[in-house]
Amino acid sequence: MHSFEHDTDASRTVFGTGTLSRVRDELRRVGGRRALVLSTPGQRALATRVAGVLGDAAAGTFDGAAQHTPVEVTDAALARAKEVAADSVVSVGGGSTTGLGKALASRTGMPHLVLPTTYAGSEVTPLLGETAHGEKVTRTGPEILPEVVVYDVELTTTLPWPVTVTSAVNAMAHAVEALYADDRTADSDRMAAEGLGALANGLRSLQRDPDDVDARADLLYGAWLAGRCLGTVGMGLHHKLCHTLGGSFGLPHAATHTVVLPHAMAYNAAAAPEAMSAAAAALGVGDAPSGLQALVVRLGGPISLRDLGFDLTDVPRAAALATARPYPNPRPVEHDGLVELLTHATDGATIHPEQENR
Ligand code: NAD
Fold first, then answer.
1. 4-156: which CATH topology?
2. Which stretches of the chain are DSSP H helices?
């Protein structure tokens, strides 16, 4: 018998190539007449280009977005929005820029349009992690979900290969944890499987031909599906660990996801066999944890937390932080198990089929 709860997203998605040209109309549709265009410092030129496309619907730009949405940056962006009399927000970039846009929109009630340029998936979630006094706190609410997302595949073609790999595996993490979430639905299962397939195929094709725009489209499509998984069902051990490693140890977001995901899957595998079979089939590998790690190696992605600045001496504190509060996960989250997982991830230990699937 079927039994589930399903809330429909209150956001609009436009997906394609060359869709940047539609951004002015899409902004108007949600009532935006004077948008503040946000970006990171590295994407300043793109923000200026988007402001040009918006024409008189652009009030100004702010290029101070940073990882983990520091509240000082939000305050500076709020002051800029006031200074230019903005009535809406346009975020152009990855999860960092989208996070800043969410912080502004949720504080002011301004409509928010996102042009994603990575595969983070934040643009389709009602989640926001903000950092104040060195601590990252996540909140969720309908006011955080952006009203419109305009995916333009062209905007992702500049993403460097190493970031392409880690960002796509970050997206895979949303889909994998959706497959064993205790509140998953038939919809989220389908989105997760299709998303994983599109992401894995997109990465393999793009490695063969770095100019393959269809592969870029697959990756962005997979990211959209995976992001919707993150937005609709609860995440488990993997996301909790990465949140701890990013928020309390300053590790880079997407690269950390890339190293940890195969180990978190190995930790959960025996307790979630159906999810692992679905993930393996979607990824096109025999065994999901080891197959994903081998794929990351073939793609040249990171496999060791040590390479990201983490040390074995950090393991006990990270394990303690990640077990401080209970949350749903297929296998009980225990301190000793996490110490082992984090030790392996720090060393970049090779996962063998079913070896760690205790
Ligand atoms: P990011 O937004 O920090 O981008 C990484 C770097 O890549 C930046 O320097 C950026 O300028 C550059 N960049 C982005 N797109 C580019 C492109 N197309 N071409 C060239 N350079 C480009 O990284 P991210 O991984 O997308 O986002 C990480 C942040 O997003 C973290 O703070 C994380 O917590 C948050 N996040 C939130 C959610 C959510 O649902 N709330 C989901 C995923 C990630």
1. Rossmann fold (3.40.50)
2. 23-29, 44-54, 71-83, 95-108, 161-179, 186-208, 213-232, 237-249, 253-268, 273-283, 288-299, 315-322, 335-347
